[in-house]
Amino acid sequence: MSKNVLVLADVRDGELRNVTLECLAAGTTAAEGGTITVAVFGSNGKDLVEKLAHFGADQVLLVTNSELDQYSTDAFFQAFKAVIDKVNPDVILTGHTAVGRDVSPRIAARLDIGMVSDCTAVALTEGRLTFTRPIYAGKAFVKKAFKEGAVLATLRPNNIPALEKDTGLSATVEELTVELPADSIRTLVKELVRKASEGVDLSEARIIVSGGRGVKSSEGFKPLQELADVLGAAVGASRGACDADYCDYALQIGQTGKVVTPDLYIACGISGAIQHLAGMSNSKVIVAINKDPEASIFSVADYGIVGDLFEVVPMLTEEFKKLLAES
């Protein structure tokens, strides 16, 4: 039975985040031949229509209020609810990002619809739409299905492959005017200060080079950054490194930080505390570098290097430079 699917586009600095394309792929499964509508908030939405169409959107709904250029809970909630009222979707998908995690529970509560968060897979099982999500800090996975009514789900980035780009596809475009009364917006974003390093988005990075207490200081992150620059990777950190003031908490990966699932995770000087493993253990390939051969991180690593990270990481950097120069 075909369904109407609504995807909330996640836009940062005028660019689509990859998780939106992953939501489109999941939406293709959920729609069962139905219509996939993408809602784009902000004044630059028109520039994103073509890309959305090429990755599976049938219809793009533009809400071009300039108040939506920067995320605020009140404004996005009102705009999102207006879009849902118009589209009347059977399935609503967003990324499990800062935006999706914040606005989705409010929408689900207000509309009294079922919600499942942090999904890593979407499938049709015996004719029913099922969502897979981790439980117990990633130690197990559970499949959820809903008996009736609309469903809202947030999808963890880097878990559902985007569809192949098809430049022959097009989408219908419609603009929606949403009233956002000033007295209904209780918060105002006056300035956006980025504390994390510029470059690859940590939550969507395909490769992450991460450091723990073993880096010993903020200076100890320099060789990790050099390796990351060569690989086009993002730099992350354990909570121990953040608590020691070696780096900003914006880089923290773990149960109380960001949850990541890159293709390659290189852990440098990280012991492998359970809180950290909860944030990265689902990475496709894990490489651990640690002086302690008994470190817990080796229990989840696909490849382990016992040695001083300050010797090993520069060697890896040089070898990758050679390999990339030859390719």
Automatic annotation (TrEMBL):
Residues 5-191 form the Electron transfer flavoprotein alpha/beta-subunit N-terminal domain. Binds 1 FAD per dimer. One of its GO terms (biological process) is fatty acid beta-oxidation using acyl-CoA dehydrogenase. Keywords: Electron transport, FAD, Flavoprotein, Transport. GO terms for molecular function: electron transfer activity; flavin adenine dinucleotide binding. Its cofactor is FAD. It comes from the Bacteria. FAD binds at residues 213, 238-239, 252-256, 269-276, 290. PROSITE patterns: ETF_ALPHA. Belongs to the ETF alpha-subunit/FixB family. PANTHER family: ELECTRON TRANSFER FLAVOPROTEIN ALPHA, ELECTRON TRANSFER FLAVOPROTEIN SUBUNIT ALPHA, MITOCHONDRIAL. This is Electron transfer flavoprotein alpha subunit apoprotein.
